[in-house]
Design goal:
By secondary structure, this protein is of the alpha/beta class. The chain has eight helices and 14 strands. Helix 2 packs across helix 4, helix 3 packs antiparallel against helix 4 and helix 6 packs parallel to helix 7.
């Protein structure tokens, strides 16, 4: 594993108000930026689309499936993600961090990693730059495009870089056994049957699968021997704790040991 590297996914439900079109959660973003100043390790950030990218992708009926989507919609979805990325990057700059925003198309061809480019962003992270990338609509060839979710991008980056810490920050404390009791599952072994956990349903405005998608990607990452931590990003101190290995409240998906 790369020494000290922390890979963090900021869910759309954390950085935006998902039920309010094009509404960034500035307080949450600023709180996370301040929390990141406390970390002295290489960091790479991925963020979701929330009420920016998801809002427009629903309007233009775009999905993770490759298809001939409305070209005007492709432009609008992409530019909305650039706009959200700038809000997050500017928040980090205000607290003295050194973010470097980049679209996933700089790191992938469609849904396939460009390994050399991904290794470059680790080198950047070692030099105190914080690469900040995001889920987006990506070109897959011919006249076809596809949504590459931030969660799927986490799996792509984790497989190439094998970070020491992998954190999914959502708007809940972790994975619950059911929606009624909200009893937190502290640890999930990769051998556990996923159907034993009742996932939260994705909202109507979520084009990429909501909590179920996050857990699915966490299982994919864990199958390569890496632990994945799922936390409440609306409490930014938990990001610090997860990165430092001192987290008390959250769900850990344990990586399969070779």
């Amino acid at each position: 594993m790369l020494q000290g590297l922390t890979l963090i996914k900021l869910g759309g439900s954390v950085v935006t108000f998902k039920e309010k079109p094009l509404a960034a959660n500035i307080d949450a973003i600023d709180g996370i930026s301040r929390a990141l100043t406390q970390l002295d390790v290489p960091i790479i950030i991925v963020h979701g689309g929330g009420s920016f990218g998801h809002y427009w992708s629903v309007k233009y009926d775009m999905h993770t499936k490759s298809a001939n989507y409305d070209i005007h919609g492709v432009s609008i979805v992409h530019e909305s993600m650039i706009a959200l990325n700038q809000i997050i990057v500017n928040s980090m700059i205000r607290v003295g961090l050194n973010p470097y925003g980049m679209p996933p198309s700089a790191l992938t061809t469609g849904h396939k990693p460009i390994v050399a480019k991904i290794k470059h962003i680790y080198a950047m992270a070692q030099s105190k730059i914080i690469p900040v990338t995001f889920g987006d609509v990506v070109y897959v060839g011919g006249t076809k495009y596809s949504i590459l979710s931030g969660d799927a991008l986490m799996t792509i980056l984790a497989r190439v870089l094998r970070p020491l810490r992998i954190i999914f920050a959502t708007n809940v404390d972790g994975v619950y056994k059911d929606r009624v009791s909200r009893e937190l599952v502290n640890e999930i072994q990769i051998e556990d049957k996923r159907r034993s956990i009742e996932f939260f349903k994705a909202s109507d405005t979520d084009a990429t699968g909501g909590m179920q998608r996050k857990v699915t990607e966490a299982f994919k990452i864990a199958s390569h021997g890496m632990d994945v931590v799922m936390i409440n990003g609306l409490l930014p101190e938990r990001i610090t704790e997860a990165a430092e290995g001192t987290l008390k409240i959250g769900t850990v998906v344990k990586g399969r040991k070779s």
